[in-house]
Amino acid sequence: MAHALVRAASPLLATPVLGPKRSHECVRHGCRAGLLGIAILALALQAEIVDRIAASVGSTVITESDVLEDLRVSALLNGTAADPSDDQKRKALERLIDQELMRREIAFTRFPLPSEADVEKMYREARARFPNEEAYQAEVRKDELSDATVRQHLQWQLRTLRFIEYRFQPGVQVSDADIRREYDDFANQWRETKHSEPPAFEQVREEVERLAQQRLVDSALDRWLGEVRTQNDILYRKGYAQ
C-alpha cells in the first residue's frame, strides 16, 4: 500500500512546470501534512484508549470516563475517598446500566424533572458537610469534577428517587410481619453497635415501618430491573466482563 502511494505521488513531484524550488516546497508541505495527520491519528487513538467503552446498552455507550465520574461523585457526596479498583468500577458500571434502563422508562412515562428549588435544597444539604466554600471547591478539583457535574448528578438522583416512589411504592403492602422483622433487624444492629438495649417497638414503629416499606420498594425495583435487563442487549467490554 505504501508503494502504491509513492507511485501515485511521483508524477506530480516530477512535473517540470513546478520547478525544483516548488517541488521541494511540495515535498516539505506534504511531509508536514503527513506528520500532522499522524499526530491527529495518534491523539485520536490516545483518546480512544483513555475513554474506552466499558459497556453498551443497546445503542447507548457507557465509557470508562462515565464509570470514573460516577465513582468520584459518589465519593464526594458520601465523604469518602474514590476507589478506582476493578471491583468498584464494575459496581459503578452496574449502577450506570441500571440508571440507563430507568432513564428510558422515565423518558417513556415523561416523568417530570424536579424543581430547581428542590435540587438547590439537595445541593445545599450535600454542601453542608464541607466547612466552607474553599474546602468544597478543593475537593471538587481533587476529584477532577466540576460544580455543574455535581449538580447534574444530584438532579438525576432526586428525579430517580421520586420516580421509584411513583412507579413502585403504590404496589407495596407492608404487613405487621414485615414491620416486626424490620424491628428485629434494627434491634440486633442497635445491640451490636451501641452495646445497649434498643428503644421499645412502639417507640420506633413509624420509623421501622418506613424502613420496611423502603426495603419492599427496593425489592420490587430489583425484580423490575432484572426483567428489563433480559429485554435489552447489554454488552460488557474487556476488563468489565462478569
* Main sheet: strands, sense, barrel: 3 strands, antiparallel
Shape: globular
Q: Which structural class fits the helix and strand makeup?
A: mainly alpha
Estimated radius of gyration: 28 Å
What is the mean predicted local confidence, pLDDT? 84
Task: Describe the model.
The two termini are 41 Å apart. The radius of gyration is 28 Å and the shape is globular. The chain folds into two domains: 48 residues; 186 residues, Orthogonal Bundle (Triger factor/SurA peptide-binding fold), CATH 1.10.4030.10. Strands 2-1-3 form a three-stranded antiparallel β-sheet. The N terminus is likely disordered. By secondary structure, it is mainly alpha-helical. The longest helix has 32 residues.
Provide a short characterization of the protein structure:
This protein is mainly alpha-helical and 242 residues long. 71% of the residues lie in helices and 5% in strands.
Features:
single chain, 242 residues, mainly alpha, 71% helix, disordered N terminus
Topology:
Elements lengths: L1 H12 L5 H32 L2 E5 L2 E4 H15 L7 H24 L6 H12 L5 H10 L4 H22 L7 H19 L10 H26 L3 E3 L6
Antiparallel strand pairs: 1-2, 1-3
